[in-house]
Input
Amino acid sequence: MTLPTFLQSVTFLSAVALRVGAITFTFTFTSATRAQIPDDGKAGWTPPIPEVDEWDWIQMDSGEWLKGEIRTMYNNQLDFESDEFDEMILDFRDIAFIRSGDVQMVNMTNRNRRDASGPFRLLSSLRAVTDEEVVTGFLRIEDGQARVIPEDGSEERVFPKDDIISFAAGEPREINFWSAKVTLGSNARQGNVNQGDLSTRATIRRRTPNSQFYFQYIGTFSQTEDVQTANNHRVTTYYDWFLSRDFFWRIANAEYYKDPFQNIEARGTMGTSFGWHIKDTDRFEWDVAGGPAIQYLVSENVEPGQEKEQTNPAITLSTNFDWELTRRIDLVGNYSVLYAGETAGGYIFHSDTTFETELSSWLDLDVSFILDYTTNPVATNAGTPENADFQVITSLGIDL
Output
């Protein structure tokens, strides 16, 4: 039996008295021994679960308890604020117990789709996603199971912890559906060569259980000795409607691109497509989409007899992935190919690969590798632009 800590060390006292004449001398001896503790590694005392109060309580799988306020949980990252430790980002997979003191809005997966097999899996995956995937109430997680207890006393929902996609404190609010990130990178050099570089990226996303809106701007500007050497801008946006957990309809997707050094004064593409969530796990997400489009192209300069403006039917194919390499490093890839005819550039490839390193809960260090490749660039009266443009951009990003 394991003794409590205050009994694990016991002190023994002994005394010897010696009388010499009328004087008595007393000698006291002390010795200490430590109680034997089993070496099986098990704690002899487990703290009780805290009483119900207005606070959110979390227990890590190590047994440690935290008291504070849950802010949000997404992508297995729990944003938790404590009076003692301030704001913390905890790995949701390391949490063994949660009891919320306030109402939580919990976004969960569709168990019907996951439990189906064989041909029934495809049929079940085609079922429309409904708001029933979002449940609101007091959240309790214990022994791998999650319980959401509605505030109005209606029937509670019980499901595996692994089915939770995200949750946030409070009733469903519009602000909970939005996220944004802004990155900025710059470089300046003065001396034998005067050069300045500036790159920026802004991403806005609104995601609900039924739909997703996405907007991104990427811009690069560079100047050497008062001569412009780079000036390109790309805007990408789309709106997805989730037909199921596996399939989605990209109702509208659009892109604007400008790069005078590639002989592109303006290039606009608009279309629609259907997509498939190939993989969607805690650490890896992978989508692919494709469909028809219309492209409008205005060239900076063209050879005699060629049209400066042209409109062509096109077809697009894109794929995106987000891979959590470690708890602090993500690998994000966005790739697309477009074909609108040989006179419009032939096959047009865009590749954007970014390593995102989390420096804090709101600050990232991003390193991006961007490649634009055109198989048949539109020629000018001074020659034909290069097929490929490659950029390496290092920047700091702020998560909003």
Remarks:
- The longest strand covers residues 264-280.
- Residues 56-172 form one domain.
- Confidence is low (pLDDT under 50) at residues 1-14, 28-42, 113-132.
